[in-house]
Amino acid sequence: MTHVVRRVLGPAATPSRLHAERSAAILGIALGVAFGTCFVTGVLSHLIQEPPGWFLWTSRPAGLYRVTQSVHVATGVASIPLLFAKLWVVYPKLFAWPPFENVAHLVERVSLLPLIGGGLFELFSGVANINQWYPWPFNFRTAHFAVAWITIGALIVHIGAKWATTRSALSRGRPPPEPDAKRDALDRRRFLLGVFGTSGLVTLLTVGQTLRPLERLVLLAPRRPNVGPQGFAVNRSAVEAGVVETARRPDFRLTVEGRVARPLRLSLDEVRALPQHEATLPIQCVEGWSTSQRWRGVRVRDLLERAGANPDAEVRVESLQQRGAFASSELNRWHAHDRDTLLALDVDGEPLHIDHGFPLRLIGPNRPGVMQTKWVTRLMVT
Ligand code: HEM
User: Fold this and answer.
1) How many other C-beta atoms can be found within 10 angstroms of the C-beta atom of residue 213?
2) Counting Cβ atoms within 10 Å, is residue 340 exposed (0-12), middle (13-18) or buried (19+)?
3) Who is most buried in 57, 64, 91, 209, counting CB within 10 A?
4) Ligand 1: which residue has its CA nearest to atom 7?
5) How far apart are CA 89 and CA 17, in angstroms?
6) What is the pLDDT of residues 212-251, one digit of tens each?
7) pLDDT digits (tens, 9 = 90+) for 113-151
8) Nearest CA to 309 among 318, 299, 319, 321?
9) CB under 8 Å to 30, separation ≥6 — which residues?
């Protein structure tokens, strides 16, 4: 790293002059904002997928989750150069002797372990996840979620401990009139510009996976959202889900049962004969990519009404897929009764491809892609 810094800023740019409190403070603030944003958007994503009793996720605005999860992944990616630069700036202090001066200092130093370890783990596991690479035996979501809390706890302790130092490092007015002070400030500025520039660049080369105007710049994102059958991506194919045979069976039936007055059992032709509705809605994958399509199908609320369900009924949407996170999803009362929540038969004017959920897939506003259940066979009203 020192070698790289010297090459970029010139031989006079000694690391000691760049390991300044001011650089650490600026990078710390940027990382605090980035990790805070990741934490809030990540916890929101968790609440949407596993809602506790007090949490009711709205179905409007239709693209809100698209924004929050895209921000989560983009901010996480932007944090990678920031975290490594910050570690490089402060590493001489990490090995300072004596290791602590008093009890408060000891607590602050101990909190660095979960902060650095947790930060590195979150970034590594997040990047591995968006590449669908799981080189570990544990569940990604459980671990990423738990470590997020530990990291944020340690970050709060760290901010508390460094508040005064940060303020004084940033509030220093003009540099003292030492001969090297001006050059130091210039080197520092160039170093920080380089770090923020790298952070901006990696984000720019990734964010086109969800931001259409930047689509052509997608060089680092693992997924092209517009590549796949019918012109958009697939996360789990029919083969992977083990539904190729069952989805194509001529005796396929959609059933609506549970807390209803008149259970329904409909063939595909009968579903097609019901009033159809169109909506343009996004699929926002939890892994950061998104795509928007024109869908056509039956409104879930029309099916519920036909079956005589309560006007505030909630629904479990079940797939032909037998196991895994994609096998079913819940529609709370807002999502179940939204005018655009459909069991889609067609996309962009064609019958759904089997990898997109033929014969029927759930598509609704403001939901993670993992909750847009494919190969739907049953609505269980609760
Ligand atoms: C490069 C960095 C990161 C990437 C690419 C990333 C990616 C992801 C992805 C794809 C998910 C959705 C997982 C799923 O629902 O299947 C997620 C969830 C989450 N992320 Fe990150 N993340 C990153 C950094 C962070 C950081 C720094 C924090 C907090 C300090 C964080 C906190 C969370 C939380 C709390 C969740 C919710 C987990 C759950 O649903 O149980 N992430 N992240």
Assistant:
1) 7
2) buried
3) 209
4) 126
5) 10
6) 889 888 888 888 899 999 999 999 999 999 999 999 999 9
7) 999 999 999 999 999 999 999 999 999 999 999 999 999
8) 299
9) 82, 196, 199
Tokens matching residue 33: 């904002």
pLDDT confidence tier of residue 179, bands split at 50, 70 and 90: low
Going from the Cα of 137 to the center of ligand 1, the distance in angstroms, rounded, reads 18
Pocket residue to mutate for ligand 1, from 39, 75, 122, 220, most atoms within 8 A of Cβ: 122
Q: Give how far the C-alpha of residue 300 lies from the chain's centroid of Cα atoms, to the nearest Å.
A: 27
User: Which residue is it, tokens 């509030």?
Assistant: 171
Instruction: Enumerate residues lining ligand 1, CB below 6 A.
Output: 35, 38-39, 42-43, 45-46, 49, 72-73, 76-77, 122-123, 126-127, 129-130, 141, 144-145, 148, 151-152, 286-287
Other CB atoms within 10 Å distance of the CB of residue 170: 12
Exposed e or buried b per residue across 86-99, where buried means at least 16 C-beta atoms within 10 angstroms of its C-beta: bebbbeeeeeeeee
DSSP sequence for 75-131: HHHHHHHHHHHHHHHHHHHHT-SSS-SSHHHHHHHHTHHHHHHHHHHHHHHHHHHHT
Residue 343 contacts residue 303 (beta carbons within 8 Å): yes
Joined together, the tokens standing for residue 62 give 């239709």
* pTM over cut 0.70: yes
Rounded (10°) angle between helices 64-94 and 181-207 = 150
CA-to-CA separations, 191 to 25, 168, 177, in angstroms, rounded: 14, 21, 22
Q: Where are the alpha helices (DSSP H) in 172-294?
A: 181-207, 238-241, 244-248, 268-273
